Amino acid sequence: MERLVGDFGRMYRERNDALNEVAHAHHEALFRLSLAADLKDDDTGVHIIRIGFLSEALALLLGESPAKAAMLRKAAPMHDIGKIGIPDSVLKKPGAFDVQERAIMNEHSRMGAEILGRSRIPLFQLAAELALSHHERWDGSGYPSRLAGQAIPLSGRIVAVVDFFDALTMDRVYRPAMSVDVALAMLREQRGNAFDPAIVDTFLENAVELNALRERINASHLSYSDLVSGGV
Fold first, then answer.
1. What are the domain boundaries of the chain?
2. What pLDDT band is residue 15 in, cutting at 50, 70 and 90?
3. Most buried among 41, 154, 159, 181, by the most CB within 10 A?
4. Active site residues
């Protein structure tokens, strides 16, 4: 009997190890796809690494548990994975979108959720949730579902603030990077309009520390393994 119990225990551990290995491989594959999407819009690809670590830091400041914040760190870099399906003629357009181009661009949220949402693994379910919701606005004028206030998942509300700040402070095809002070002022202007006021307040109150984290990431040449381990 003891041998039988031991065999079952070993089989259970081997099964869990195999499932964890599959989940890890799945995550890395989707991260690589997210990186490919990011490289279409960012020459360095470090944007999604910053999004992961900054989202985790902001979640912790908001009182989320370390486990939930760590999961957000791993999920947040997949927020724009749907951009892999957006034509470069739209994604890299240097000027303003026309109505048709804007409609095409806005589809990346649904595309991302579709790519990620077929998994039953909690990490990818979270990634699908924030991919779909990070362009919703606090005032209900966002897309794709025009959700408002706390009807927007917390993951999407956090990533929206982080993505806004980080995107403003990096070079884009249509403009140079803005200063941190300008980006923070623009974030403050969108408090209660685009973004959850409490999340904006927390970001602004901790802006020095969050920007220092951003600078450490830029200087550290982090990779996928760092994102998984949480080391900066």
1. 2-229
2. very low
3. 159
4. 83
Question: In terms of DSSP H, where are the helices of 77-205?
Answer: 88-91, 99-106, 108-116, 122-133, 154-168, 180-189, 197-205
**CA separation (Å) from 143 to 12, 65, 95, 151?**
44, 28, 21, 13
DSSP code of residue 179: P
- Mention every residue, 6+ apart, whose C-beta is less than 8 A from residue 162: 51, 54, 55, 58, 76, 203
Per CATH, domain 2-229 is 1.10.3210.10? yes
Copy the structure tokens of residue 211.
């920007």
- Specify the pLDDT at position 18: 47
pTM of the model: 0.83
CB 109 within 8 Å of CB 144 = yes
First to last CA, the chain: 48
Q: What is the mean pLDDT of the chain?
A: 85
Q: Distance between CA atoms of 172 and 182, rounded to whole angstroms?
A: 16
What are the structure tokens assigned to 194, written together?
């685009």
Is the alpha carbon torsion for 130, 134, 138, 143 positive or negative?
negative
Assign 1 to helix, strand or coil. Answer: coil
Q: Which residues contact 3 (CB under 8 A, 6 or more apart)?
A: none
